[in-house]
Known about the structure:
- The chain is α/β, with parallel strands linked by helices.
- It contains 12 helices and 17 strands.
- Strands 1, 2, 3, 4, 5, 6, 10 and 15 form an 8-stranded parallel beta sheet that branches. A 3-stranded antiparallel beta sheet has the order 8-7-9, with no helix packed on it.
- Helix 1 links the parallel strand 1 and strand 2.
- Helix 1 packs across helix 8 (about 260-270) and helix 4 packs parallel to helix 6 (about 185-205).
Amino acid sequence: xxxxxxxxxxxxxxxxxxxxxxxxxxxxxxxxxxxxxxxxxxxxxxxxxxxxxxxxxxxxxxxxxxxxxxxxxxxxxxxxxxxxxxxxxxxxxxxxxxxxxxxxxxxxxxxxxxxxxxxxxxxxxxxxxxxxxxxxxxxxxxxxxxxxxxxxxxxxxxxxxxxxxxxxxxxxxxxxxxxxxxxxxxxxxxxxxxxxxxxxxxxxxxxxxxxxxxxxxxxxxxxxxxxxxxxxxxxxxxxxxxxxxxxxxxxxxxxxxxxxxxxxxxxxxxxxxxxxxxxxxxxxxxxxxxxxxxxxxxxxxxxxxxxxxxxxxxxxxxxxxxxxxxxxxxxxxxxxxxxxxxxxxxxxxxxxxxxxxxxxxxxxxxxxxxxxxxxxxx
Length: 378
Ligand SMILES: NC(=O)c1ccc[n+]([C@@H]2O[C@H](COP(=O)([O-])OP(=O)(O)OC[C@H]3O[C@@H](n4cnc5c(N)ncnc54)[C@H](O)[C@@H]3O)[C@@H](O)[C@H]2O)c1
Ligand SMILES: [Zn+2]
């Protein structure tokens, strides 16, 4: 399918900007709608990596007067604009629901009520919709435990337990069919975004895909946003001579996927019908403990700093979640290409060559978590 004119909301951000570049490279006309959220874009201006071939519109996705004409001029919409922090969503409830849930509702309202020629919609969803990943109990097979009780975290009993027999369970890659479970406001909004978009897509015959991003990393991550992902937080700590702080014991398994692989998967979703009307895991398919990532970053940076293993949990954290990418492989022909070593080396090279990219605001964010009682005392 040839899609000529593509609207990327949040396209000044990290994932959206890489996608915009890739689409320009494929001959598409790309429009970006972004309000330059100050927490992400501290300068208040379009980022230095802005693509001269892209049309940039500064505005809010909740503003119908701005969004509607852009949607009407497009063949496809990739909705990346969002407020993106799990921790912050637990005390900025109104903002998160308004930007993420209502912003998507407005997009869908336009698609239902205006005369348009949009033939594909991608809505950025997240690993967060699963809550905990999938687990296997030796006695009970596949099980889906909920969030760990505070008392368990306080006792530093980090591993998940089987809901039936209480024994420890083993993490397995999470397929899209796993029961969904939200344990923080950000993830609820991601769940609502994807459910609403898939529902409207199926009802009105508009092909919608909900990519569920796992832990995306790569150049252009907002390193100074202390509410962003752990890689950005640790890197900015290391670049400012501080120890990365690893919650619990660092054994949490995650799936780190290069932004380049993510973009390739998004392009496949735009160009093929194989995943239409479905949620799709977007990950590397590799499980890795987060402590190893913190160490890898320090090693690649050449700083002799050991991560600080906090042995403390946060109330909303999950233990393990890694991607089963069978659907992306089979429905789209997706194959991740970037190795961890290469991908992180590229990230670090970019961070080093980008002045003022890393200002560490993490201590302040940690203090906020402490004040709101979101760190478990142990
Ligand atoms: N990075 C990850 O690991 C990851 C994981 C899961 C899901 N996601 C999802 O992917 C999408 C993109 O994430 P990202 O990592 O590129 O984040 P990002 O913060 O770099 O980009 C988001 C962009 O949206 C813009 N924005 C925020 N609120 C807006 C509003 N009201 N109106 C217009 N623009 C607005 C911001 O200015 C920013 O440029 C988000 O929907 C996020 O929830 C990302
Ligand atoms: Zn069991």
